[in-house]
Amino acid sequence: MTDVYIDNKFVGIVKNPKDFVEKVISERRMGKLPITVNILHREDLKEIRIDICGGRSVRPLLVVKDGKSLLTEKHLDQLVKNEITWTDLVKQGFVDYLDALEEESALVAFTQEDLTEDHTHLEISPLDIVGLTTALVPFGNFNHGVRLSQGSKNQKQAIGFYIANFFNRMDMDVNILNYAQRPVVETLMHRTLNFDKHPSGQNVVVAVMSYQGYNMEDAVVINKGSVDRGMGRSTYYRPVVSEELRYAGGLIDEVGLPDKEVKGYRSERDYRFLEDDGIIYPEAVVKEGDVIIGKSSPPRFLSSLDEYNLTSSSRRESSMALKHGERGVVDFVTITENSEGNKLIQVRLRSQRIPEIGDKFTSRHGQKGVISIIVPEEDVPFTASGTKPDIIFSPQGIPSRMTVAHMIELLAGKTGALSARRINSTIFDSESEVDLRKELLGMGFVENGSETMYNGITGERYQGKIYVGNMYYLKLKHMVANKVHSRARGPIQLLTRQPTEGRANEGGLRLGEMEKDTFIAHGTSLLLKERFNADNTIVPISEASGMMAIDDARTGKSFCPNFGENTEISHIEMSYAFKLLLDELKAMTVYPKLELEGKY
Q: Are 416 and 470 in contact (CB under 8 A)?
């Protein structure tokens, strides 16, 4: 007797478990049961588990019987001619959708050549075992598994041509690569996804060598000539949005040039770009502090007197201005309505981003690095034929990472560029490295991809051969211009008197435990004290009660609220956040008594 469970609920028992399982599977293949019903017979536990619940990942596999796939060449021809569709294959039982449960009882062959009598299913394509972006990694089967998934994640952060109608859209924080290219080394997935319609990188010449130590720790050295010719150049877009909100009592925001009587009026210089309607004009070059959309709002709190006496002076200024460190050119202005019928103004800013030191680049193999130096073109090493690399990649990044595909792509890219064709590098189904080497040799190059190179500064020939090739490099959205941040003094929070948080608010840089340790190691104790007194304050403490005393500024005397003036009061330096804690403890009827000791 074998127990049967449906979605982990016991529903009954069967006498012939094998016949029962076979019948369920055959009924599913005949279309009498939904294709997402999955079944597993656990002989050791004497139970059959059936899953029909939602939220399971299922994947298609070709059904195999007696060591042969049910899908024949005839069916493939019909598919190509559009005589039958994928749905027909599923209905006729040639394709099974298996989840993790039923895969336990399946033996899946990788390719048709691997099929034996024991196999139950066949992969539709070896490409199927990886995800969509992972399938874009060239020669992926030559990489370490972790690097393959990192290469997949890096591609999602790459700047490219993300959509054709970007000019008419208002997207948050987007980048457009000005000269995006289709890769020379591509996979089946590139063609399937029409990748040439939305590319995300550029084909560059890469030399694997060190350059005066500048490309250690994964950093890359960039040729300034390449940057000047447009390599990695992109445009950054971000919107500034404001709307005329309606408030209780018929009050409303007003978009326009604020009156000088308005509370919080800025200087006239801040409003210099606004036109008569209070909105900036296109192509204005703006920087931090400049107002983009002028607006005034009704007062936040209405007292009983002001309720019936609303004058223009009671309104407050609520314009949209650029925050600390922001700059750009006004690209596009649109005036429309939102879903509630309120006036909506959207202004798009653009700024050109030219690669600079600290910008992040990566290949498609998880070999990411930041620019450490941009070398003048005349100082860049060159090959015997006069080719200068766009990027100099460190050889130290290869041995421990085991990204062999990175090296094969260099060779394949070189072959493809010289023979003016695209190289197929689909995972498990790529062109042979041996054939690529032969093709490269036939064009008069060394078959292993290495070349003689000369020092760009001295003109001397390098002793060793340098590995040079073409590669598809991606510029990532992590750019220095979006992240650079510093502060000396600035705004503080009202409650804790500590610096505000975040780059946009001109916030402070947090010094944590590890940063503290580095200061201690350097012996810079006074600097450490300075770092930690961002919110220091001096508080009078009554030695009798151990609680905060009161400084009376009018009489110049201090007294304890509990013991009066006849107690000794000491002025103690402490963090304002600690003083706040003492106040909050008192509010909870906890007595925070401070016991003071003298300094020795």
A: yes
Segment 164-221, tens digit of pLDDT: 999 999 999 999 999 999 999 999 999 999 999 999 999 999 999 999 999 999 999 9
Distance CA 556, CA 562 (A): 19
Domains belonging to the chain, first-starting first, are 2-124 (3.90.1070.20), 136-168+175-233+357-475 (2.40.270.10), 235-353 (2.40.50.150), 485-531 (3.90.1800.10), 536-587 (3.90.1800.10)
Beta strands in 148-223 (DSSP E): 174-177, 185-186, 202-208, 220-223
Per-residue tokens: 456: 């760009």
**Phi, psi for 526 (deg, rounded to 5):** -65, -40
Cβ-count burial of 200 within 10 angstroms (0-12 exposed, 13-18 middle, 19+ buried)? buried
Q: What is the rounded distance in angstroms from the CA atom of residue 255 to the CA atom of residue 258?
A: 8
Q: Which of 218, 270, 379, 551 is catalytic?
A: 218
- Cβ partners under 8 Å of residue 283, min gap 6: 329, 330, 331
Residues across the chain:
600
Whether pLDDT at 302 is above 80: no
What is the separation, in whole angstroms, between the first and last Cα of the chain?
Answer: 85
Helix 433-442 and helix 404-419, axial crossing angle in degrees, nearest 10: 40
Q: Give catalytic status of residue 114 as yes or no.
A: no
Q: CA 246 from chain center: how many Å?
A: 36
Q: Which residues pair with 443 in a beta bridge?
A: none
